[in-house]
């Protein structure tokens, strides 16, 4: 055997061992734990062996397989646009009459038509007012002008952007709230242009879910107590429970606690906080999964709330002159006075920006800030790329706007999927997949004999690879996913049938066994590759354009097709080469 064969054999063995290792959490979650405990990651970590991968690398069961709550929330972007137009009218009047003092205007708002009518007290000042307004408030465009009256309307591009951001803001708040509820396999995604689809597997109280995600977010500005040694003393005097993975962190310049489990971290430190202080958490986002927290960081903040998001009128992310990401915020007149007083008293301290009890950011106040406008500089430490920092700034801006100017969210649909139905679907789906697989295995052995047995071994590995891929990417397995699982196994069998038929054809032409195997694989390769790539393109289209079960089907299909390429082209060839080279076979059962 040549060196290349040993390299390929080592690769096959390595992939097989990795596959089995990745499936350990899924096995314990689905077959060892009770159904009620499937979402309990802490219990799963305790029950698994120490050498197993983290509990998060497991196959999640979708709503149709384990039961739960399905919700569709409607985001009222029309009402949000009307309120935004009214606020812009107030801002324009204040800007012209007070800030610039280039004339006096009265602003009349038509919320239904999204129109602003500016009427100047002195018609001679209208030219200067029009020029200043259009140059400053670029999100509005001129509709018409009749003497001393100027009619404005929102720019169409800005309207579309605002609608998208309104849905994004609502999704951000909903994700944060559901994370506090502790649902492990939550699925929150856009549905159309103004709706959000929410799946809460394992939950059974629709009214509690409706209350959780349907109330208005609360944005607060609170002072951080970063001069105390509270967290260090707590960590030293009362060590955290074994297995909680809570550590002491000083990377922000003052002691903080960091842990992977929100409830465990709060239960450990919150009861020890001083009476006039509160412990809040900051989400440290996952580098690979959007909307998921890898861990949490603590902040000790004052209980007093000096300023809320009701006074915030805007927040936008941008790049500074030094090419550093920043977030620019603005307040109304009352909020501007409160913010100026807050920054004057808190110069040199950190101010926590809190949305729904989560710290979104805690910038340091460098000086008193007047005028109702402030800039939050994100900085660029840690060697992270600029686009990552800018994404963080955009997320913060969304969080600020979500708390300050939330679009009304109503429940469009809510229903409960019974767990008993999910169990029945699992049984029937698994039975169908098992029966189909057994029939294929028997057929391959009877029709292709030894080469059919090799194809069956590769087929079994192909199935394990699909399940391991779902676990690795923390994908959710749905009933359509089971259908995709069976479909891709069929595709894998088809590839092996094509290879075996090619080998038969070469043997019928009088080729030696070695030559028939080599040329059979070579000539079948591009046909198999083209078929798989075509199907992969269809799978990716389904994944990026579909929602819910369609994406579950596409995910399993994509993983299955990649596994099929690996097993049909590489795995079976390793075994076939062993038979015809190492054992010097003169005939082949094919």
UniProtKB/TrEMBL annotation:
<dbReference type="GO" id="GO:0015450">
    <property type="term" value="F:protein-transporting ATPase activity"/>
</dbReference>
<feature type="transmembrane region" description="Helical">
    <location>
        <begin position="453"/>
        <end position="473"/>
    </location>
</feature>
<dbReference type="Pfam" id="PF21760">
    <property type="entry name" value="SecD_1st"/>
</dbReference>
<keyword id="KW-0812">Transmembrane</keyword>
<dbReference type="InterPro" id="IPR054384">
    <property type="entry name" value="SecDF_P1_head"/>
</dbReference>
<dbReference type="InterPro" id="IPR055344">
    <property type="entry name" value="SecD_SecF_C_bact"/>
</dbReference>
<dbReference type="Pfam" id="PF02355">
    <property type="entry name" value="SecD_SecF_C"/>
</dbReference>
<feature type="transmembrane region" description="Helical">
    <location>
        <begin position="524"/>
        <end position="546"/>
    </location>
</feature>
<feature type="domain" description="Protein translocase subunit SecDF P1">
    <location>
        <begin position="167"/>
        <end position="226"/>
    </location>
</feature>
<keyword id="KW-0472">Membrane</keyword>
<dbReference type="GO" id="GO:0005886">
    <property type="term" value="C:plasma membrane"/>
</dbReference>
<keyword id="KW-1003">Cell membrane</keyword>
<comment type="function">
    <text>Part of the Sec protein translocase complex. Interacts with the SecYEG preprotein conducting channel. SecDF uses the proton motive force (PMF) to complete protein translocation after the ATP-dependent function of SecA.</text>
</comment>
<feature type="transmembrane region" description="Helical">
    <location>
        <begin position="7"/>
        <end position="28"/>
    </location>
</feature>
<dbReference type="InterPro" id="IPR048634">
    <property type="entry name" value="SecD_SecF_C"/>
</dbReference>
<feature type="transmembrane region" description="Helical">
    <location>
        <begin position="479"/>
        <end position="499"/>
    </location>
</feature>
<dbReference type="InterPro" id="IPR022646">
    <property type="entry name" value="SecD/SecF_CS"/>
</dbReference>
<keyword id="KW-0813">Transport</keyword>
<dbReference type="InterPro" id="IPR022813">
    <property type="entry name" value="SecD/SecF_arch_bac"/>
</dbReference>
<feature type="transmembrane region" description="Helical">
    <location>
        <begin position="552"/>
        <end position="576"/>
    </location>
</feature>
<keyword id="KW-1133">Transmembrane helix</keyword>
<feature type="domain" description="SecDF P1 head subdomain">
    <location>
        <begin position="295"/>
        <end position="407"/>
    </location>
</feature>
<keyword id="KW-0811">Translocation</keyword>
<dbReference type="GO" id="GO:0006605">
    <property type="term" value="P:protein targeting"/>
</dbReference>
<dbReference type="Pfam" id="PF22599">
    <property type="entry name" value="SecDF_P1_head"/>
</dbReference>
<feature type="transmembrane region" description="Helical">
    <location>
        <begin position="429"/>
        <end position="448"/>
    </location>
</feature>
<comment type="similarity">
    <text>Belongs to the SecD/SecF family. SecD subfamily.</text>
</comment>
<dbReference type="InterPro" id="IPR005791">
    <property type="entry name" value="SecD"/>
</dbReference>
<protein>
    <recommendedName>
        <fullName>Protein translocase subunit SecD</fullName>
    </recommendedName>
</protein>
<keyword id="KW-0653">Protein transport</keyword>
<dbReference type="InterPro" id="IPR048631">
    <property type="entry name" value="SecD_1st"/>
</dbReference>
<dbReference type="GO" id="GO:0065002">
    <property type="term" value="P:intracellular protein transmembrane transport"/>
</dbReference>
<dbReference type="Pfam" id="PF07549">
    <property type="entry name" value="Sec_GG"/>
</dbReference>
<comment type="subunit">
    <text>Forms a complex with SecF. Part of the essential Sec protein translocation apparatus which comprises SecA, SecYEG and auxiliary proteins SecDF. Other proteins may also be involved.</text>
</comment>
<feature type="domain" description="Protein export membrane protein SecD/SecF C-terminal">
    <location>
        <begin position="411"/>
        <end position="579"/>
    </location>
</feature>
<dbReference type="GO" id="GO:0043952">
    <property type="term" value="P:protein transport by the Sec complex"/>
</dbReference>
């Amino acid at each position: 055997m040549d060196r290349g064969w040993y390299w390929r054999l080592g690769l096959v063995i390595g992939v097989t061992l990795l596959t089995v290792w990745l499936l350990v959490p899924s096995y314990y979650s689905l077959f060892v734990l009770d159904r009620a405990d499937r979402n309990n990651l802490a219990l799963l970590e305790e029950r698994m062996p120490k050498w197993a991968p983290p509990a998060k690398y497991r196959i999640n069961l979708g709503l149709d397989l384990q039961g739960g709550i399905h919700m569709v929330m409607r985001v009222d972007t029309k009402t949000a646009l009307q309120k935004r137009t009214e606020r812009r009218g107030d801002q324009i009047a204040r800007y012209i009459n007070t800030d610039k003092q280039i004339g006096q205007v009265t602003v009349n708002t038509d919320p239904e038509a999204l129109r602003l009518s500016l009427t100047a007290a002195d018609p001679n000042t209208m030219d200067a007012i029009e020029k200043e307004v259009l140059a400053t408030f670029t999100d509005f465009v001129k509709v018409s002008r009749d003497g001393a009256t100027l009619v404005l309307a929102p720019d169409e591009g800005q309207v579309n952007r605002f609608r998208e951001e309104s849905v994004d803001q609502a999704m951000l708040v909903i994700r944060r709230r559901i994370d506090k509820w502790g649902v492990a396999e939550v699925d929150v995604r856009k549905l159309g242009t103004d709706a959000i689809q929410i799946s809460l597997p394992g939950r059974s109280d629709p009214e509690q879910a409706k209350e959780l995600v349907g109330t208005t977010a609360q944005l607060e500005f609170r002072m951080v107590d970063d001069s105390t040694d509270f967290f260090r003393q707590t960590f030293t005097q009362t060590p955290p429970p074994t297995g909680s993975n809570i550590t002491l962190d000083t990377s922000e310049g003052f002691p903080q606690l960091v842990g992977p489990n929100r409830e465990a971290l709060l239960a450990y430190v919150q009861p020890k906080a001083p009476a006039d202080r509160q412990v809040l958490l900051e989400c440290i986002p996952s580098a690979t999964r959007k909307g998921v927290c890898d861990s949490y960081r603590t902040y000790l903040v004052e209980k007093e709330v000096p300023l809320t998001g009701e006074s915030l009128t805007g927040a936008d992310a941008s790049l500074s002159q030094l090419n550093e990401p920043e977030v620019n915020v603005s307040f109304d007149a009352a909020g501007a006075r409160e913010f100026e007083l807050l920054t004057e008293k808190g110069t040199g301290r950190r101010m926590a920006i809190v949305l729904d009890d989560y710290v979104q950011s805690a910038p340091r106040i460098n000086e008193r800030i007047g005028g109702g406008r402030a800039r939050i500089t994100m900085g660029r430490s840690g060697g992270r790329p600029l686009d990552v920092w800018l994404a963080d700034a955009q997320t913060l801006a969304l969080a600020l706007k979500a708390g300050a100017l939330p679009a009304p969210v109503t429940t469009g649909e809510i229903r409960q999927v019974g767990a008993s139905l999910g169990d029945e679907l699992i049984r029937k789906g698994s039975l169908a997949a098992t029966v189909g697989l057994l029939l294929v295995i028997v057929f391959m052995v009877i029709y292709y004999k030894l080469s059919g047995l090799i194809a069956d071994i590769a087929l079994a590995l192909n199935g394990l690879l699909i399940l391991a891929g779902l676990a690795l990417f923390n994908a959710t397995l749905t009933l359509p996913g089971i259908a995709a699982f069976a479909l891709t196994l069929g595709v894998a069998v088809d590839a092996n049938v094509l290879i075996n038929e090619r080998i038969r054809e070469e043997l019928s032409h009088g080729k030696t066994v070695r030559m028939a195997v080599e040329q059979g694989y070579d000539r079948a390769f591009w046909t198999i590759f083209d078929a798989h790539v075509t199907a992969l393109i269809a799978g990716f289209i389904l994944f990026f354009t579909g929602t819910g079960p369609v994406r579950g089907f596409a995910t399993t299909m994509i993983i299955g097709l990649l596994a099929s390429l690996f097993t049909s082209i590489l795995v079976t060839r390793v075994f076939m080469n062993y038979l015809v080279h190492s054992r010097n076979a003169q005939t082949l059962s094919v």
